[in-house]
## 1
Amino acid sequence: MRPATLIINLQHLAWNYHLLQKHAGETNIMAVVKANAYGHGLLPIANTLYQEGCRNFAVTDAYEGETLRSEIPQDSNIVLFSGVFDAEDAALCQKYALTPVIALPEQLTLLHCAGFTGKLWLKVDTGMSRIGATSPQTLIKQIPPSMRLAGMMSHLACADEPKHALNQQQIKQFKTLQQTIQAPAYSLFNSAGLIAFAQHINTDIARPGLALYGIEPIASKALGLKPIMQLRSQVMQIRDIQKGETVSYGATWSAPQDMRIAIVALGYADGLPRLLSNQGQAWIHGQLLPIVGRVCMDYCMLAINQHHVQVGDEVVFFGYHDGQPSANHVATQCQTISYELFTQIPSRVPRTYVKE
Ligand SMILES: Cc1ncc(COP(=O)(O)O)c(C=O)c1O
């Protein structure tokens, strides 16, 4: 079996959940486990959170909702952030007691035709200009009597930049909506919003995703979250190369002197961004070693020089132990965000769950 592995630390996940719940106080946590729990694996993540007391989960669509319901009992809400797209989705909502988030009248029609008699959330746009009702008062009147409103939510566009003027505009607009639209619950905050703005407005449910996975959404307001993911593989071969010899596709790197390189079984088809070619680093025995040459589909190469490295040694590309590159650091190097890094790790990389 290829040694490329994603290690997920469930103990750190539990820590993060309790830390966020403590920070949220009276506000409940809806754990955002959409997109396969941001690549961490839907069921193990949701099961751990359930065991820790979480009873509200958010996924993207009915397909993810159906999968989650296979393990999460009906004492928990499974909310579909993208609501329903077709009649089949609407039927799944009824069958598995899923709670769609509604932004469009057409979604209500689909649910009505499927005989849906459950709860739903209303999604209102307050300034992000993404999907969301622009006239919530009208939409709310169209909810058939057989369905129940569970709450009203909106989403901040710039929560991770607390000083951005749009935050206060959106909060103000949401407060006005709270006064005009009667709903059993209100929800506005993602991870960053919960950390930066929870004291600015009373809401009932916060919807953190990233923070559960141990990334501090706002560095200057760090809570003490613990990263939970480690991407690692092993050294397959050690090669001695001579000054001037080139490494990998395109011969973009040549050895400045006689040296040793390690060939590692991890490539861009394992989620290692190709942008790390000639600029990333990997961790072996506490040392950070540079990636040399282009990252290939299944392999990459490290310059090991005088370091003592052997075939079979463990190589960490990002992780949660001291000194290992953080996912955030790697994402920044690749001009992206940790959300993208996490969700790009394909299923061919097996997930291993630990409690250490
Ligand atoms: C509507 C909504 N709420 C909450 C979240 C969770 O955001 P975060 O992972 O930044 O906490 C997302 C994520 O994209 C979202 O789309």
## 2
Amino acid sequence: MNDDTSKAGGDLRAVTLHNGVTMPTLAFGCAFGDWVGRTDFQGFLPEQAWRAVSLALDSGYRAFDGARVYGTERIVGTLLGQRFASGALTREDLFITTKLAHPAAPPHINISHKRTWDPDKVDDIAQRVRDDMVDTLDDLGLGYVDLLLMHWPGGFGQHTSPDPDFPRQARATIWRTFCELADKGAARAIGVSNFTVHHLRQLLEDIPEPERRPTVNQVEIHPYCRNPELEDFCRTQGIVVTAYAPFASGALGMLQDPTLTAIAERHGKTVGQIVLRWHVQSGRTALPKTSKAERMAENQAIDDFALSDDEMQAIDALGTGEARRTCPDPSFVA
Ligand SMILES: NC(=O)c1ccc[n+]([C@@H]2O[C@H](COP(=O)([O-])OP(=O)(O)OC[C@H]3O[C@@H](n4cnc5c(N)ncnc54)[C@H](OP(=O)(O)O)[C@@H]3O)[C@@H](O)[C@H]2O)c1
């Protein structure tokens, strides 16, 4: 067994964002349901969050990744409120992420139209963002979030505006509104999600103040879906990359991959632990989600071993070629 943890270096439990805010490396994913279609397709099932988030708090998770569209913020807020009331937790113990501005969802996902909107279908984009933020904070029962992300760079279909620059302008408007919310204290840090290099470059041109650049880009990354070019770009800009669907949502047969299984056996760890260790050793943060208490503990126990350079490269090699995704490809967003 290889127990040389020195290779990874640094603090693997937290990262410091460019605005000085400290963010835990692992946050518990709060999207529940089956949007990949492994079973009879059900879309989001927020009711599963009650038990899972409660167990996750018991298991020691203090960072939670949510979004307006998941429909779980009232549940998370209620469960946190119980712990605030008992004195078991204070607000400062937690790192809460939300995501706003999710466009009308692909037809196979059952998200309420009240939780999604296409920028070209609302009269006042900035006001819609402000209103959604009020609803999110009300549901969470919090005065601020630790991290606010723009959920998607734009609509999945063709936008109806005749102006080809509209999607870019809409992103800039949403981003300026996020800056305003951060300035008012509603979010300690702001970032983006599902942004490609193209979307990031445009945003950095449109809002050139370095201190206003995104702190985080949350994107789909797992051993079957890699994007080294995007990660390199984010690194040069000081933007932390967070891997969503770090286990490929349990789909694509990834957790049964023979390369991962062999590495797991060599270390006496589970495939889940190997995958999470690969994420953090690669310098990204990750959002593991599970409904099972034993896996919640397992997914946090990744500090007592390290992957060798050969093992890191072998896992990297699984993601060469076309990415196998569980969510839509954001490069199709204009
Ligand atoms: N920004 C975005 O657009 C976006 C999109 C998708 C997801 N996300 C975020 O990313 C989070 C995680 O993504 P995800 O929910 O799609 O899935 P995920 O975390 O990649 O995978 C969850 C699946 O893996 C299984 N699992 C968890 N730990 C395991 C372990 N140690 N060994 C074996 N299997 C394990 C779970 O099964 P059990 O429950 O049976 O353990 C579940 O089926 C979401 O909850 C959300 O917060 C963001």
